[in-house]
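Technical appendix A lists one of the benchmark inputs used to test multi-chain prediction within the project. The record comprises two sequence entries:
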Amino acid sequence: MLESFIEIEDKLVKALQETAFMTITSLVIAVILGIGLGLVLYITSEPLLSKNTPVYEVIGFIANTISSIPFLILMIFFLPISAAVVGTKIGSKAVLVPLTVAAAAFFGRLAEASFSDVDKGVLEAVISSGARKSHVIFKIVLPEARISLIKNITVTAITVLGFSAMAGLVGGGGIGDLAYRYGYQRYKKEVMIICILLLIILVQLVQTIGDLTVRALNKRGR
Amino acid sequence: MSEQKRAGKLIDFEDVSVSFKQRKKVTEAVRDVTFSINEGEIIGIIGSSGAGKSTLLRTINRLQTVSSGRVTVEGKSIGELNSGELRKLRSNIGMIFQHFNLIGSKDVYSNIEFVLLENGKTKEEAGKRIDELLKYVGIEDKKHSYPGQLSGGQKQRVAIARALANNAKILLCDEPTSALDTETTEAVLNLLKQINRELNITIVLITHELDVVKEICDRVVVMDEGRVVEIGDVYDVFTRPGSEFTKTLIRKENRFVIPSNVLENAHGKIVRIDYFDENAERALIAEAIEEFGVRINILHGRIEFIKKKPVGVLYISINGEPVQTRDALKYIRENSGKMEVIRDA
């Protein structure tokens, strides 16, 4: 196993870099977009803010549609759009677009749930004190939802990592691609095992970072 | 103080109705409510759960919009206010809740600071005001604690400080003591009384605890299925309830019955006497014994005070010559608030 590890070391490092690039970049953009999406869904469903059922239904439907398409298909479907956005149809960069879109739709729904979990009573209390709605959202709802948001970002990060394993299909590379091409197509069992171990370590790492952040935030008050 | 209480209407409900549409089913939470709240008074709204108390309370600061009718606060019809005017109105109406509703991610200081900054105070002005407020509600030492570190009573004090921060004229209380133990309830009620007296803040309080109403309210509104069934002075409503619903509500609360073995062992007629107003302070039993030479034995009794005026219930057995007993009963009937023969022997 050690031999084959040395043999593929270069490829492994490259795959790891590709996975990290795809996961981190799309996660960061998806979190920003998802918070926006979640906020819109939350605000348009909350009577104390600006309930607007038609807007909620339309945006919710779009988010659901994206989430219901298997990522593999979404990725292929998005190739022309990727070409327009990042200028290429192949490679890690091309995967960024569908990856971000899928992650944003996924995280948007989770963020909406995080916001909805903010105590309605607290919302009533601050609104009844004469606070502006925009301040209620940014100074109360967001900070109050932060722990739940971190938990959901962790879940999203792990999901994105999983999605990124399919990037090989469009030449995106990454650990999943390495496992497929060497481990499966060339019958190198060791490569497969190393890749799996690596993915397990990555997931554990992401989960641990998430848990530690939550714990640090919990220490203050509550 | 009683002069202030007659200072005039502050909040006016005119034919207020609120209905909710849920999955094609329309629920009428509040129906045709009309009454006024006077400046400087403490008014209680009671009724069973689902009677529309909370909904009605929330129409005062438009957390709940009305389906029809009009709510007027200080002469302004609040349904017509634009968002800026509404925020101004809300800053003048404090609100506290059963579960306190403090912002968990902010400490006591920041909880209060938020509402002050929202109403245009500078950080410096806010800091001064917060010290003042915390001193007034008696928790200066908790300035930098988080809500999670406070007891229920302390949380409610913070909530009260926050509600009063912008010099509110009206304080809406949504079951303010229902999550508190007896002792803390007492302390919070005293604080509310103090606020009403010293700051001349009008308090509208909803509760399902009749004792709270007896303790601090001047007037009480009784609601049943969205309607106001009775409104009046607390002492009057509790001693002479007008509606069947109020009677049932009071009876449920005063589960006041004699143990059956006491009844079995007692001789003679058994009578229940309710007395209130000036009758409550008379030595009625002693007078009856002296005048008619009957033997009266007190089986069970209780006296309580509503707004410092006594209300009593007494179960007695009465023995003696038939004529004298009859006259004694007649005398008691005429001089007590209400008399009822439980067992005629």
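Residues 2-252 of chain B form a domain with the Rossmann fold fold (CATH 3.40.50.300). Chain B touches chain A at residues 61, 63, 87-95, 97, 99-107, 114-115, 118-119, 146-149, 159, 162-163, 165-166, 172 (CB under 8 Å). Comparable benchmark entries are summarised in Table A2.
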